[in-house]
Amino acid sequence: MTDQVEPSTRPGVYGERVAAVEPGGVERIPETERHGSPVQLFWTWASPNLEFATVFIGVLAVGAFGLGFWQTVLALSIGTALGSVTHGVLSARGPGHGVPQMVLGRAAFGFWGNILPAGLMSVTAGIGWFAVNSVSGAFALSALTHLPALGSLVLIVLLQIIVAFFGHNLVHVFERYAFVFLAVVFVVASAVILIRSHPGAAIPSAGVPGAFLLTVASAFGYAAGWNPYASDYARYLPKATNRLATGLWSGLGVFVSCVVLEVVGAASVTAGVAGSDNPTEAFTGQLPTVVAGLTLVAIALGAVAANVLNIYSGAMSFLAMGITLSAKFRRALVAVVFGTAGFFVAWLGLDDAGQKYENFLLVIAYWIAPWLGVFFTDQYLRRRTRIDDLLYDRRYRNGAGPVAMAVGIVVSVALFGNQTDYVGIVPRLVPDIGDVTFLVGFAVAGAVYATLRRPPRADVAAAELGANTPRHT
């Protein structure tokens, strides 16, 4: 093995142990270490969405965007379905390749070009999403215990870092047991809120086309926000695992949990929630005392369930940028660093959390959609080409990927971006258009990549790697 080839074999033995720190970083998982079944991906992806950040998307649609309840239900369903389908397709590739999602993306971006999506993923997942969910968890814990918001934030962050530090197996076990409590509590709370809601209530509209498309974009941004994590939690499944089952359970986990709680969030606005500086307290204020208390516990636990994935995958994306660390438990150590950084961002986000969350959701969609456009186009072009040898070779280049993604982001945001911090050319001229940036970004990036990158022939593929490149199995 040359210095130019990144090791693809993970050090240490992990197996199915839970009370053990997962060794290595982003190396390929050997078949001897594979375990689990596709159904576990349902609760792994459902539990992280059973939290207040999901509820708040529905709150934004009705309370901030001015969309009617039934229009909100349709918009939430469309946006979430788009993000869930892509999530299922990405997850389905996990067992076959046995590598994290951002390593799998090296085929489309090249080893060093992959720094663009992996870097964005590290920041938005390991710090951005971590901060968003930590804030909602801290608000819930503060409302329940009357501790200061900052003190509650410290407790939430510590629990999240501990689970993520140990790694893959503990993450799956934590999500499985959290799912039972979260599902029961949120079903009860949802039933109460839906009964007390007034779906036909007249709501001042901010313009149906624009509000509808903003809601679709926000729902897509939330659901697709999990896309860059997809194969991280499917890569340990045996290689022969059914791909359809893997994708179906992953996609359903995201879709069902998101749509249900987002609709409940929209319904809570029609029920006439009393104002409060603590949004979680305002949401639970319409529930019976016991149910309200349990819901606050569930919101705090749901935030932890989401953030153990954010820290874990954020750390692996950081390592997928090609950064070399010598420690055996490098992923675990990076997780601690990201958790600490996310804490300080969350601290700043305790003020005006609602507006910051709305902008964050749209920004997530702005970069993930062009990334998906490049990734899926490359996957189609390489549908008969082996890519395993490309993923760990530092000499592998594919400039079409980062160029297409960058063009997709710049063009779509410049023309169609629509949020409080920036309004693009088209929304300034046609305010009712809402925000279709993610759709434009996906299409532009895919088209540019298809233009720059042709289906590689066998001789071209060999030239990409070099005649002396070792093969990995």
Q: What's the total number of strands?
A: 0
**For this structure, what is the CATH class of the domain at 47-351?**
Mainly Alpha
Low-confidence stretches are: 465-473
| CATH domain fold name of the domain at 47-351 | Hydantoin permease
**Which architecture of the domain at 47-351 per CATH?**
Orthogonal Bundle
Helix content class: 55-70%
| Beta fraction | under 5%
Determine the mean pLDDT: 85
Order of helices and strands: HHHHHHHHHHHHHHHHHHH
Cα distance, first to last residue? 14 Å
- Treating each run of at least 4 consecutive H or I residues as one helix, how many helices? 19
- Outline type: globular
Strand and helix map with partners:
Layout: H1 40-46, H2 52-64, H3 69-91, H4 94-97, H5 101-104, H6 106-109, H7 115-145, H8 149-166, H9 168-196, H10 208-224, H11 243-270, H12 279-284, H13 289-319, H14 330-348, H15 353-381, H16 400-416, H17 425-429, H18 437-452, H19 458-465
Helix pairs in contact: 1-9, 1-11, 2-10, 2-11, 3-10, 3-11, 7-8, 7-13, 7-14, 7-15, 8-13, 8-14, 9-11, 9-13, 10-15, 13-14, 15-16, 15-18, 16-18
